Q: What sequence folds into this?
């Protein structure tokens, strides 16, 4: 179980000589999914495969890894949704991100670090982007490090998060390479929410064509 999950409830190749005439694999693909009241669209870096999807009452979570499992992984992209949360005036994208960061801090009080990339918008939706990192996840057997990019988006009725997490060897303090994670944020874009239209089915052309 990831630290962020506990709180919330790129495949490219270069070919030489004759092989260079072969088309390259796409570096990402757009994934669009109905999650509660809206369609959630983002760019999934290739190599990631969905291995878990659960909807439990007001909570939704979907996890994707690279040839690994939900229990043993080095990189994971997680999409979550919380139904109806946007109706709470006390909740903002920033404090949702802060709550996730708080879960990290609880898991590694002596090696925790975090930073906010700040408020933003994806389309017309208010959002916030932050980073959280544990140098040592104390509850883990191997005391691995874990760093996550956290994107929170306020929908018309619900809240959504998109998290890209990475695990590594134990470290004295969580480390955040901002340039690396800003690049990964760009890989996930465009991130957008679209209305669910009556009768429309995958691949949801109304959302595919939306700027």
A:
């Amino acid at each position: 179980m990831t630290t962020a999950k506990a709180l919330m409830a790129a495949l490219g190749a270069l070919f030489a000589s004759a092989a260079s005439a072969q088309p390259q694999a796409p570096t990402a693909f757009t994934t669009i999914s109905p999650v509660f009241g809206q369609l959630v669209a983002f760019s999934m870096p290739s190599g990631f495969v969905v291995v878990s999807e659960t909807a439990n009452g007001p909570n939704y979570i979907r996890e994707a890894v690279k040839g690994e499992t939900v229990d043993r992984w080095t990189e994971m992209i997680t999409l979550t949704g919380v139904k109806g949360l946007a109706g709470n005036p006390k909740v903002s994208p920033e404090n949702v991100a802060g709550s996730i960061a708080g879960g990290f801090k609880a898991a590694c009080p002596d090696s925790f670090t975090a930073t906010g990339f700040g408020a933003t918008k994806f389309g017309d939706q208010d959002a916030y982007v932050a980073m959280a990192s544990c140098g040592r996840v104390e509850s883990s057997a191997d005391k691995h490090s874990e760093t996550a990019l956290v994107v929170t988006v306020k929908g018309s009725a619900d809240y959504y998060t998109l998290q890209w997490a990475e695990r590594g060897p134990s470290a004295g303090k969580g480390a955040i390479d901002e340039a690396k994670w800003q690049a990964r944020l760009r890989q996930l874009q465009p991130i957008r929410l679209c209305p669910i239209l009556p009768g429309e089915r995958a691949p949801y052309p109304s959302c595919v064509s939306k700027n």
